[in-house]
Amino acid sequence: MQPIKGQTDLDLDHILSQAWGTRQANFNNTVVFSTPGKTVSVSVTGPVCALNCAHCAGVYLRSMVPLDKALADSRDLDRKETSYLISGGSDARGRVPLLENLQELKELAKRGPLNLHTGLVGEEEARQLGDIAEVVSFDLVGDNKTIADVYGLSATVEDYFASYRALQKYTRVIPHLCIGLNGGMIKGEYEALHLLRQEKVEAISMIIFRPTAETPFSSCRSPAPAEVVHLMASARLMFPHTPIYLGCMRPGGRYREIVDVYALKAGVNKIVLPAPEARREAVRMGLSVKISEECCSL
Fold first, then answer.
1. How many percent of the chain have pLDDT more than 70?
2. How many structural domains are present in the chain?
3. Are 269 and 27 within 8 A, CB to CB?
4. Is 298 among the domain residues?
């Protein structure tokens, strides 16, 4: 694998060496490769989102299964799916209307564990959602301007962390950090990690901004692979005992191949839909590969 462009400027060799040593000191040699074919992605709002955020604009909701169909399909005794990722469009306050569908979600939870994507929540909402969630995947943002630029909200970083703390009282929570969320710029991601060090953290899932057609950020570029890898390696050093995942949302092609290989070197514990070269690199590194068929938080 050729060095990443920009590697010298960020001194990646040094931080990758430290990150890999930290992983070796604190974890066994197993890496999990996840192909989440047994997790159904469900939207409680269909393709509708009040915010139409700059990076998504509801595009990703279109490929998700509507809640009523997911519930009907769950009654099929021959179904292959065993778990559910529950999301949907946000309302004008940045919350996904899960409680409005609570009875349906309770029924679905009887068929398999739920991974809830909640958006902002209050204490009572967190309590009720904790009754049905196996885990919550919660997007954290470390920069107020990014919240305004991407989501169009007047919410603050503290609002996101307050929601995170509220949810943690009632269920497992895996914080998700989108690298380059603000149009591909690294803007607040390191700050989010520093703030997380003051919180209880079970695991951290990292995803990467990718420009998407039909969105305001369609002409933007993903963050440079060197910047992404530096952030992942920094996270490993900041959280030496915490599992770190590379989640499904990230660019494909050559970009994914480079990032996935270097993610292994940066000490991640799990990669969702790894590039073929990363699979080969894991063997070369002497890692023992474990396969999962559910989403990274489950």
1. 97
2. 1
3. yes
4. no
